[in-house]
Amino acid sequence: MEAISINSFPQAVTIAGSDSDGSAGAQADLHAFFSRHIYGMSILVAAVAGNSYGISAGHNFPLDFIDAEFKALADDFHIKSAKTGMLADSELILDIVKNYQKVQFGPLVVDPVITTKHGAKLLEDEAIDTLRERLLPLAEVVTPNFSEAQVITGSELKDQNELVEAAEKIQKFGAKNVVIKGAHLIGSKQKKVSDYVLLENGDGYFLSEEYIDTSHINGTGDTFSAVIAAEIAKGETVKNSIEIAKKATHQAIVKTIGVGHKFGPINHWAIE
């Protein structure tokens, strides 16, 4: 039998909530990690009871349990990248910041989850400042969607110029690289979904893919940020990781799977 070097396989961790229907949250992150051939782990901070119609109940985990999850993984594994998902309040964000600064989990991808596809609010209003001031400065990459970027920057984002200005503003909060994902308006006549990328070196550009008119888009943001984290764990550059994530997420949207009634999951099997 071939000898296996301890912790030689690329590993990443998601710091997020559990979504019981598997379409979003830590479950979507783990699907994405698996699709990119890395070993995925999870630090669960909350759990929600939900399905494709919406969320009916939620429970936040105790901070001492979250601390124990961080320690358990740090004591054993060589985690090369991490990503965050749903972090509901300031107390939790501060706890994640405290723990992340203690461990060596590699570059951090921040997916600033504020609302679900169903419109349920997942981040308390008073936690927005904590997100800006304490979590964003740790981010190697931050990936807000269009509406999340509006909240974080306080801008309407009426045109591409405002989108560029918003990315620059988010970068000034401390995030090294920023991706503002373009609006995906179900039932619209838009032809493209364009994301704006602002890299640490100041280069900015748009990444576009064909708009797909489907309600099976739950977990797109989770998947996009998780693929970025996965590629970073494998040693890819941030720029390449973002571009791989854009293509992979589009592939997962194009080939719909029949699961759920309303906001169904995307198809991680379709990712090449």
Automatic annotation (TrEMBL):
The lineage of its organism: Bacteria, Bacillati, Bacillota, Bacilli, Lactobacillales. It holds the Pfam family Phos_pyr_kin. It comes from Oenococcus oeni AWRIB429. Belongs to the ThiD family. Pathway: Cofactor biosynthesis; thiamine diphosphate biosynthesis; 4-amino-2-methyl-5-diphosphomethylpyrimidine from 5-amino-1-(5-phospho-D-ribosyl)imidazole: step 3/3; Cofactor biosynthesis; thiamine diphosphate biosynthesis; 4-amino-2-methyl-5-diphosphomethylpyrimidine from 5-amino-1-(5-phospho-D-ribosyl)imidazole: step 2/3. GO terms for molecular function: ATP binding; hydroxymethylpyrimidine kinase activity; phosphomethylpyrimidine kinase activity. Its EC number is 2.7.1.49, 2.7.4.7. It comes from the Bacteria. SUPFAM superfamilies: Ribokinase-like. InterPro entries: HMP/HMP-P_kinase_dom, PM/HMP-P_kinase-1, Ribokinase-like. Residues 19-267 form the Pyridoxamine kinase/Phosphomethylpyrimidine kinase domain. It catalyses: 4-amino-5-hydroxymethyl-2-methylpyrimidine + ATP = 4-amino-2-methyl-5-(phosphooxymethyl)pyrimidine + ADP + H(+); 4-amino-2-methyl-5-(phosphooxymethyl)pyrimidine + ATP = 4-amino-2-methyl-5-(diphosphooxymethyl)pyrimidine + ADP. GO terms for cellular component: cytosol. Keywords: ATP-binding, Kinase, Nucleotide-binding, Thiamine biosynthesis, Transferase. Gene3D superfamilies: 3.40.1190.20. GO terms for biological process: thiamine biosynthetic process. This is Hydroxymethylpyrimidine/phosphomethylpyrimidine kinase. It is an enzyme of class 2 (transferase).
